[in-house]
């Protein structure tokens, strides 16, 4: 077995994740082979298995890295927002744009692929460290005995990156008093992208419909309750 310095291990692993990112985004999980990744990085197959037990583990690492990139984009997008309404609008616009343009984000949040891969790994969670004595911390392969399942982990991450609902509710600026429902509402809107280029929505009207949906949700979420008629 080839021995690598810590610096070499970090460099090789980063190259493998980047190669996996490009290949999985272009061809999907099933059509991407381990040999495709190793050829891109100019390493042997045996070296691949010094870093990942399987293609599934690499794919999960790629999805987790893509999730972090999305969260970073969201944090940047709302940094200068001047109101809760602006924050909500920017969250929706940024996430919807990423789902439309980034196949990995779509597979992660709309197709639920991170859960499918987690199940293939027999209930383990794989994060961003190599197999052989990396820095550890939060980036480890763990069983369900010591960690919540993947969906719970994703919910925790959404809470971390979207603390705004709690703030909106604390300041009494939003009509819904449960932050998880607010987050779920924003998250559920991602599925509207599945209507694009389908018989459900005409090709030339999707953008207008998405725009109207964003406006309707944001306006309704922050509308003065006195303006809402009660049956």
How would you describe this structure to a colleague?
The structure is a single chain. The chain is mainly α and 231 residues long. The chain has a single domain (6-224), classed as Tetracycline Repressor, domain 2, CATH 1.10.357.10. It has eleven helices and no strands. The chain is elongated, with a radius of gyration of 20 Å.
Quickly list its features.
single chain, HTH_TetR, DNA-binding, 60% helix, elongated, DNA binding, Transcriptional regulator, HTH-type_Tx_Regulator, mainly alpha, Tetracycline Repressor, domain 2, 231 residues
The CATH class = Mainly Alpha
The average pLDDT value, as a whole number, equals 79
Distance between the termini: 72 Å
What structural category arises from helix and sheet content? mainly alpha
CATH topology: the name is Tetracycline Repressor, domain 2
Number of domains: 1
Give the helices and strands as they follow along the chain.
HHHHHHHHHHH
Helix content: 55-70%
What kind of oligomer do you see? single chain
Corresponding CATH architecture: Orthogonal Bundle
As a whole number of angstroms, the C-alpha radius of gyration is 20 Å
Instruction: State the CATH superfamily name.
Output: Tetracycline Repressor, domain 2
SS elements, strand count: 0
Low-confidence stretches: 125-129, 132-151, 225-231
Query: Could you give a short account of the major beta sheet?
Result: none
Strand content: under 5%
Number of helical regions: 11
User: What form results from the Cα inertia axes?
Assistant: elongated
């Amino acid at each position: 077995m080839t021995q690598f310095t810590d610096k070499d291990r970090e460099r090789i692993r980063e190259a493998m994740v980047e190669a996996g990112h490009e290949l999985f985004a272009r061809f999907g999980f099933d059509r991407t082979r381990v040999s495709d990744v190793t050829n891109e990085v100019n390493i042997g197959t045996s070296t691949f298995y010094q870093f990942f037990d399987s293609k599934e583990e690499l794919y999960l690492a790629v999805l987790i890295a893509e999730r972090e990139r999305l969260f970073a984009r969201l944090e940047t997008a709302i940094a200068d927002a001047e109101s809760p309404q602006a924050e909500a609008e920017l969250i929706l616009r940024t996430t919807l744009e990423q789902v439309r343009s980034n196949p990995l984000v779509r597979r992660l949040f709309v197709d639920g692929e991170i859960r499918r891969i987690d199940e293939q790994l027999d209930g383990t969670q794989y994060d961003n460290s190599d197999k052989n004595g990396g820095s550890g911390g939060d980036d480890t392969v763990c069983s369900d005995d010591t960690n919540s399942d993947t969906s719970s982990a994703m919910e925790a991450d959404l809470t971390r990156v979207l603390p705004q609902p709690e703030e909106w509710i604390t300041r009494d600026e939003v009509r819904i008093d449960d932050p998880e429902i607010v987050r779920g509402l924003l998250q559920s809107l991602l599925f509207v992208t599945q209507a694009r280029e389908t018989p459900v929505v005409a090709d030339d009207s999707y953008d207008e419909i998405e725009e109207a949906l964003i406006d309707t949700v944001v306006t309704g979420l922050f509308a003065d309750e006195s303006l809402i008629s009660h049956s």
